[in-house]
What we know:
The chain is α+β, with helices and mostly antiparallel strands. The protein folds into three domains: 9-114, Orthogonal Bundle (Butyryl-Coa Dehydrogenase, subunit A, domain 1); 133-240, Butyryl-CoA Dehydrogenase, subunit A, domain 2, CATH 2.40.110.10; 248-397, Up-down Bundle (Butyryl-CoA Dehydrogenase, subunit A, domain 3), CATH 1.20.140. 51% of the residues lie in helices and 15% in strands. Strand 9 (284-285) and strand 10 (288-289) form a beta hairpin. Residues 102, 135-138, 142-145, 168-170, 224, 377, 380-384, 386-387, 390 line the site of flavin-adenine dinucleotide (FAD).
Amino acid sequence: MSWDFTTEPEFQAKLDWVNAFVREEVEPLDLVWPGDNYKPLDDAHRRIVDPLKQRVREQGLWACHLGPELGGPGYGQLKLAMLNEILGRSIWGPVIFGTQAPDTGNAEILAHFGTEAQKKTYLQPLLDGEIFSCFSMTEPQGGADPATFETEAVRDGDGWVLNGWKFFSSNARWAEFLIVMAWTNRDAGLHGGMSMFLVPTSTPGVVIERNVGLIGESEEEGAHALIHYDNVRVPLDAVLGGEGKAFHVAQTRLGGGRVHHAMRTVGNCQRALDMLCERALSRTTKGSRLADKQLVQSYIAESYSELTQFRLFVLYTAWQIDHYQDYSKVKKDIAAIKVLTPKVLHSILYRSMQVHGALGTSNELPLARMWARDLPSMSIADGPSEVHAVTVAREVLKGYEPAPGMWPTDHLPSNLEAARTKLGV
Ligand SMILES: Cc1cc2nc3c(=O)[nH]c(=O)nc-3n(C[C@H](O)[C@H](O)[C@H](O)COP(=O)(O)OP(=O)(O)OC[C@H]3O[C@@H](n4cnc5c(N)ncnc54)[C@H](O)[C@@H]3O)c2cc1C
């Protein structure tokens, strides 16, 4: 019997180091440069950021999502989840540790499917944290249903020519390259007719029409590009993983990414709960502390319980991925935590803001950013919650059969008769 909820002491020591390092050294960057984390480094940023990355490397914690063959420690999803719980508190945390989305997933794609030349030009600098990348799949007319996509690549001599529009391509404005999904053979249907292309952002015909901002951001701050691929010519080897293999390629990046998002959200929820508790102990009204009011105690108890349930579910999902080494076997739970992520964040964040009163509605607390920017995105990015809920239901139903007769198998009157016969009473 092995069923253990403890963290091995050596790794706990690493987590303790990360916790202190993020709070003391990385969170100050969030305050002075909140929107710069994906921008290529200028000298002023590099002077501060490079030594921090170096300290992470010295701890053997750089790019922990990668196996040793790619320069990472190969920790697996469970340890990665615990690390992401801490990094999730901070805007700059993932960049300083070399684990920021979408670069983690794009690096995995290049590692699996890139040519040696592509790896040298793009993968190595990406792993070194010197460049950024973009995953360009969603289109203006549809994201959740790839059947609505229109971007097309046509073979032309010694290359391919791409035409179409993509929407919400995060970080394209700072990306060195884009990974673009396009039809290559509509007759082959979705799972054989779409291919994934490596497109350098500087290729003629890649036109960023505008950078869409999230709620509260101006267009100057926006990072989610509307891109026109206008007769973009790429060589034959720009097809990653072979013609018609877009979904196979996409799968290599999504499973782990969802666990990381969920665990970063656990970190944010914990921060919101910490703030709630501190406020409840600090504020007095009508003769007693907020912490002494039963309704506020109920907020604390519910938040703690919801967060603990969610955290254990995410860790269990990460453990299953390590155990089975096969994302498809953990599909149901990966989808379930994706659905839960915005719900848990919403309920804990809401209570924390409420207990902070007017201050909670202001832009003077980190809660504001989580509420306006993170929360709505959580149930949309990487696919809407509804779509993941369908996956959960479909997977759950695989374990069931229709009732054999007119009544449910747990119908008491029918079963009473059978029980009497069995017991002879
Ligand atoms: C912050 C952020 C970053 C993103 N980054 C990227 C990126 O880097 N690259 C990229 O390609 N895309 C990115 N996206 C886009 C994201 O993947 C899509 O927004 C998502 O797949 C949904 O597509 P859509 O917005 O077109 O909504 P639609 O597909 O139009 O869906 C709209 C709504 O319809 C409902 N719905 C849809 N399908 C179903 C269904 N089957 N059953 C029931 N209801 C349904 C849901 O309520 C859904 O929210 C990002 C999105 C966000 C918010």
